[in-house]
Amino acid sequence: MKNLVRILVLALLPAAVACHGPGRSLPHARAGAGMDQAFADYLQAVADHQEELHSILVLQHGRIIEEKYLAPDTAHFMMSVSKTFTAAAVGFAIDEGLLHLDDKITDLFPEDVPEGASDTLRRITVRHLLTMNCGHATDPTHSIWNDKEGGWVRHFLAWPQPYEPGTCYCYNSLGTYLLSAAVQKVSGQKVVDYLEPRLWKPLGIAKPFWQESPDGINCGGWGLYLRTEDMARMGLCLLQGGRFAGRQVIPAGWVLEMSARQVDSAPAGLTSHQVEARGMDPSSNDWLQGYGYQMWRCRHGAFRADGAAGQYIIVLPEQDAVIVTTARINNMGEELNLIWEHLLPAL
Description:
This protein has twelve helices and ten strands. It is of the alpha+beta class.
C-alpha cells in the first residue's frame, strides 16, 4: 500500500509542478469555512474604513484560496513594489559575476562623479543602495523632475550627503534607480529585458511595461506594471526560497539576504536617527521592523514588497502563505492592520 501511495504521489508531481508553469493560472484550492468568513469580514472592514481596494489574493500552500477584484484585472502600477524586482536583477548580476555588493558607485559611473567629490561619496557601494544607507538625509527623487543640468545618476551623486554610508537609513527611490542603471551598464540590457529569461519567463509572467528615465534606463524604484497574479507568482517564488515550478529561479542565498533584516528602518520621509529621537514604537509599526535588500520586514515574522497607495506582496513563511493587494489607499498602516486582524488568524 505504501508503494502504491508513493507511485501515485510521484505520478501527480509533474501535474502539480506544471500548474504553476508559464501560461497557466496558479492553482486554486477551497478555503475552509473559517477562512471564508475571515475574508468576508476583511472585505467588510475595508468597506467600513472606506479604503479603495482594487484587488486582493491570498495564496497558501502554493494555491489560491481567496481572491477578490474590485477593479478591472489589468496591469497595475506597482509604485515601490518595483524595487524588489530591481533587487532581484541585482542578485542575478551578482550571481553572474557582473556586480559585487562592495562595488563603489563612483567606480561604476565615473563619468557622472561631480568635480571635487568627497571621500564619503566615493565610499557608497551597491550594498548601501540596496539597504537605503547611502548617507543621504532626504530622498532626492522628488527633485529630478526639475533637473535641467544632466542625468538622474549625476543628480544622485551631487545630492548632499551628511552621513557616512551605512550609518543612517533614509528611504531613497533614486538610489534604486542607480541600481537599475548599474545592472544596465554591466549587462548591456535594460532591467526589464535582463529579467525576461531570468525571472519573467520562469515565473510565467508576460514581459511587463516598466517606465524609463530620459536616458533610457528603467526607473528601478517605481514604474513597473504587473497584474495581481504576477505579484502572487513573485511572492510564491520568494516564499519558496527562490524556487518556482520545481526550478531554482532566484538564487536561494540572495532571497535570504533580500528578506533578512539588514539594517534598522524608518518610514519614508524619516531617517533612522529621527525615529530614534522621536521614540517611535516598533511593536505596532510595520515600517520599524528592519529593511533588507529593497524589501521590508513585517511584524508576525513576515516580509514584504511595498508600494505607495497600498500595493503589497506580503510573504508569511510561518503560515506558508502570500497575500497580495493592489489599491489606492492613503493609510497603508491601516491596510496592513486589517490584514493582521482578519486574515492572519484564519491562516
